[in-house]
Each structure stands twice: as C-alpha cells, then as structure tokens.
Fold:
Amino acid sequence: MNSKNKFILAISGIVVVFVLWIYWVSNSSGEGNQSMVEFISVDDLDDYENERVRLGGLIQDESIRISEDNLLDVHFMLEQGDEAVKVHYGKTRPDLFKDGAEVIVEGIYTAGIFQADMLQTKCASRYEGDLRDESDYNMDEVEI
Structure:
C-alpha cells in the first residue's frame, strides 16, 4: 500500500470516528449525561420530573434559608413571573447570590423540590448600565 492510500485511509478513519462520536453525544441519554440539558420553564417542571433540566429566574425576596448544621446547604424559592419552585442547593454559592438575584440552576426536580447541583448568578446590573444606553458609547476611542 503506497503512502497516498495510507493517508486517505487515515483521514477516512478519523472522519468516521468523528461522525460516530457526534451521533453518540447527541443521542445518548441517561442520568449521568450532562452534555445535553434542556432549558425549561417552571410551568413545565411536572413534565420533566426525575430528568436533568435547567431553569432560570429570580430568587424570591426573603426566601433564602441557610441550614444551621451545614452552611453550604441552602433552600430558596426561584420565581418566573407568577410561578415559583423550591430549590435546594448544597455547594458553595456565588458571591452575587442574594434576594432578587437572577440565577440559573441545573439539576433534577423530584417530589416538589428542585435539587440543584449547579448554580450560576447572572452579572449584577451595575455592569449592564453602560451597555444599555447607546449614548454612552464613544466610538472615537475605538481603533480599527
């Protein structure tokens, strides 16, 4: 077999492996699979009981309850409009975690409680102020 045929065979093998890997990642499901997580609303939680999902919303004011036994354990209410769900999280919380903060949680909804194992806070509004007002942009300072 000459070197040209070996090269074509190697490239073909790499392409086949890559296509099979993409197929496996996109179609594999299971409790341990965290690569494909659906972002849903609180209204749809009952349809996804015991499945891994992602939610976003605001922390309801005065709903944060930190355990006295384990300071990492926290319960709070996540609200989206008129709907709310109780969330339990047991890891280190972000610095911006507070009443009214916009958060994204990922985990499993079971028995009326969302058991989150991932919690992210969105950027504080103090960072967004300048970006919302186009009159604050000074395009003369931008070098091309």
